[in-house]
Structure formats: structure tokens, C-alpha cells
Amino acid sequence: MANKLTEKQKNTLWQQRRIASYQASCRLEGFTLAEPVSTYDQAEARLDSLRRQYGAE
After folding, report:
1. CA distance 7 to 2
2. In this predicted structure, what is the pLDDT of residue 7?
3. Per the CB 3.0–4.6 Å rule, which of 8, 32, 42, 44 could disulfide with 38?
4. What pLDDT is stored for residue 55 in this prediction?
5. Number of H helices and number of E strands within the chain?
């Protein structure tokens, strides 16, 4: 019997698919990504850092 995914697992899977889709779309259009693609956790950490820096919470 298959186990159901937790909300965190669903979110992680969705983010991975979203990133893969974006990368594939860029390749189809002939674009090259200048910056390495961040993981969801890295992006969240960066946003938190910017929010603290600029006082927007």
C-alpha cells in the first residue's frame, strides 16, 4: 500500500518539478542560465535575509 505524501513532501516535489520545468523551458528557448538555480530552501533563506535587512515582515 502506498503511503500518502506529507504537505512538506508535496511542496518539495512541486518545487522540484517547477524548477525542472523552468530549466527545460529555458533550454527550448535557447537561453542559458547565468546563475546557478537555487533550491527552494536557499531561496526561502535569502528572502528571509532580505526581509530582515529591509524590515519588511
Report:
1. 16
2. 93
3. 42
4. 81
5. 2, 0
| 39-53 burial code (b ≥16 CB/10 A, e <16) | eeeeeeeeeeeeeee
Angle at 47 between CA 10 and CA 19, to 5 degrees: 40
Tens of each residue's pLDDT in the chain, 57 residues:
578 989 999 998 998 898 888 888 888 888 877 666 667 778 788 878 888 888 865
Amino acid at position 7, single letter: E
8-state DSSP, 34: S
Sign, CA torsion 36/39/43/49: negative
CA distance 40 to 24: 17
